[in-house]
Automatic annotation (TrEMBL):
Span of the signal peptide: 1-23
Domain of life: Bacteria
Protein's GO biological process: peptide transport
GO molecular function terms listed in the Swiss-Prot or TrEMBL record: peptide transmembrane transporter activity
GO cellular component: ATP-binding cassette (ABC) transporter complex; outer membrane-bounded periplasmic space
A Pfam family the protein falls into: SBP_bac_5
UniProt xrefs under Gene3D superfamilies: Dipeptide-binding Protein, Domain 1 (3.90.76.10), Dipeptide-binding Protein, Domain 3 (3.10.105.10), Periplasmic binding protein-like II (3.40.190.10)
Keyword entries, A-Z: Signal, Transport
Protein name: ABC-type dipeptide transport system, periplasmic component
Family: Belongs to the bacterial solute-binding protein 5 family.
Amino acid sequence: MTKLTHSILASMLASLISTTAMAQVPAPAGTLTVAVGADPETFDPHFNDLPTGNTVDLHVLEGLFRLDAENNVVNELATEHAFSEDGRTFTVKIKEGRTFSNGNPLDAEAVAASFNRLLDPAVGSIYRGLYSSIERVSAEDPTTVVFHLAEPNGHVLLLLSSTNATIIDTKALAEMGAEYSRKPVGSGPYMVDSFVGGERYRLVPNPTYSGDFPATLEAIDFLVVPEDGSRMALLETGEVDVAERVPPESIETISSLDGMQVMTPPSMFSINMEIVMKGPMGDPRVREALNLAVDREGMIQGILGGLATPSVTMPGPGTQNELRVTFDPIPFDPERAKALIEEAGYAPGELSITMVCPNGRYIKDAQICQALQGSFQAIGVTAAAQVVDRGTWTEIVSQPVAERTDNMAMLGRATAGMDYTLYRLFKSGVSANTTGYASPEVDALLAEGRAETDVARQKDIYGQIQRKIWEDRPFVFLWYQTQAIGIADRVTGLEIQPNETMHFDKVAVSN
C-alpha cells in the first residue's frame, strides 16, 4: 500500500471520527439565569477587571491556553508549544481552519494581531505591563505563532492562559469601534446576543464553534443586581438559577429552602486596603500602625459571618501554592498602633486620611469600610471613608499615583500565577502598580524570578519577594474572601475557579 493511500485512509478515518464525535454532542438545551452583583464595564479582555467579565470572555473568546476549574493549564487553540534553547522565543502551533463567529479566519496572523494590540502602548491596556517580557508576536505560517521575548520568562504559559490573553478579532474591532467592548466577536462556544448596561446581558451558542468545550445551554442570562437582598429575593422566588455573593446573613435561609443550596468553593481573592505610597503613607511607621489597628478576626466573624480567613501573605491561597510562603498573622494591637502614630510625629487626630471602597464589589465591602474607619479613628487617625459606585471606584484606583488624592483603596486580587500577581502589583513603573510601591530589591528579584525555570530556585526568589512585601506593608492586609454562591438544585455541572470565574462547560438545567 502506498504512502498516499495510507494518507487518504488516515484522513478519511479522522474525518469519520470527527463527524461521529460531533454527532454525539447533544444540542444546547435550557436557559441558565445568573444574578451578578457588579456590571462589567467592558468585555474587552485587555481592559476587563471583573470576574463576571472574565466569565463572559472565557465563553465568548478563546485563548491559546486556558485554566480549568482547578487552575490547571490546558490547550484551547494551541496544539503544541516549545521554547527556543536560549529562552528568547516561545512558539505555539494552533488548530487549523478555525474561524471567528463572523467567519473571519482565526489563524496565526489573527492571534499575532490580537497580542500586538495588547502590547501596543497607544492602546493603553491595563495589562500591558504584565506582558512586558513579550516584545512582539509574529505569524511564521498560518498555524505557527511566535512570541519574541525581551527576556527569558519561565511563566509565559500561565500568562497566556489568562482571559486577558484571549484572542479578539482585531478586524471586527476596527469596524465596530466602541460597540466591540459590549459585543466582542470571538471564536468561543457562545456569543453576546444582547447587552443592556447596568441591567442585563445574554449569551447564546456560537453556531460556528468547533472547539473542545461546546455550548450546553440555549442561553445564559445575566442580571445585574448590586443589592444583596434583591439578589437573594430573585433566588428565593426561583427567578434566577444562580446568584453570586450570598451575604453571610442569608446563607442559612437560602440553604434551608427546598431545591436550593449554597456553594462555598475555594477562593484565592486577597482583599486588602492598597496604600498610595506618598505623603504620610510613605512612613513605614504609619503603615504598620494602620495594620495593627485592624481586628481582623472580629470583623470576619462579626461582619463577614466567617466568610474569610486572615491574611498571612499577599498572594491568596491557590496562587501557585508551590511558590507561596506564609507568615505570622498581623496582631490586633491598638496600643502599639497609637505609639507608632505618635513616633511618626502626629498628635491624636492630627493625621487625616481618606480611603475609598466600592459598594457591592466584595462581601460587605461598604460595612467593612465603615468598620475600618472606626478602627483607624480609635488609634488617633482621622479617617474619611468614601463608599462609591463601581464606576467611580474604578476611575479613582486607575489614576496615576501622582494624581490620586486618596490614601488607600479596597481592592481584591485573584490570579493563578506568582509572577502574574507580584510583577504587576509591585514592579516599579508597571501600569497595574497603582500604589507607587517601589523597591530596587523587589525589582531585581522579580526579574530574577521571571527568568528562572527551576522550581526550587523560584520558591527561594519568590519567598524573598513575599517576605519583603509583607514587611514593607504597602497594603493594610485584611483577608482571603470565601466564595458563597446560591444555586438551585435544578442546575448541575457548574464549576467555579478560585478567581471566581464561572465555568459553564458542563452545565445543564432541568425543569
